[in-house]
């Protein structure tokens, strides 16, 4: 009886839904005058409409995966940065990721007689990296200050918390496509 062959080429992209029970959290809030205005040589990336006062909320959530079974029991640490200083990226619109031709005009394709825009979506909103030789993962993402504030409110609710992370693996990188901090176990959904 012939043995089924394994494909030489693994799938280019793999999607995983992670469920993590939060066991520990740390938080900090910081405000300061935008430091790049004091050093013009570093202000090349500063937008004239950028806020003068930088406000940063950092929330680190640590816990253990409960789903999928292959990664259950592995430790995760997710750091969320909520900042008003990176407003260009956080306030990006769908129009900002529409593909452009060599003259800078938006690209379209025809689908059933209609013109449909072509998009170049971002790889993700954050990265997940495995600690070498350890069953431990670290992740980070930048979010709006409102999301960070809402997450802090959930942390202070006194209820059990869970993280739901939508992960996309492309080549060797693992990207966060979406994240939810919630009071119900996403493994049960």
Rounded Rg: 20 Å
Overall domain count: 1
Order of helices and strands: EEEHEEEEHEE
- What kind of sheet is the major sheet? 7 strands, mixed, barrel
Work out the strand percent. 35-45%
| Oligomer classification | single chain
Low-confidence stretches: none
**Helix percentage:** under 10%
Number of strands: 9
Strands side by side in the biggest sheet: 1-2-3-7-6-9-8
Q: Gap between N and C termini, in Å? A: 41 Å
Helix/strand/pairing class, anyone?
A: mainly beta
Shape: globular
Helices, by number, come to: 2
What is the mean predicted local confidence, pLDDT? 89
Please describe what this structure looks like.
The chain is mainly β and 189 residues long. The chain has one domain. Helix content is 8%, strand content 45%. It is built from 2 helices and 9 strands. The protein has helices at 87-90, 145-155; strands spanning 13-33, 53-67, 75-83, 108-111, 114-117, 126-130, 136-143, 162-170, 173-182. It has a 7-stranded mixed β-barrel with strand order 1-2-3-7-6-9-8. It has a two-stranded antiparallel sheet with strand order 4-5. A hairpin with a 2-residue loop joins strand 8 and strand 9 (173-182).
Task: Detail the topology: elements first, then pairings.
Layout: E1 13-33, E2 53-67, E3 75-83, H1 87-90, E4 108-111, E5 114-117, E6 126-130, E7 136-143, H2 145-155, E8 162-170, E9 173-182
Parallel strand pairs: 3-7
Antiparallel strand pairs: 1-2, 1-8, 2-3, 4-5, 6-7, 6-9, 8-9
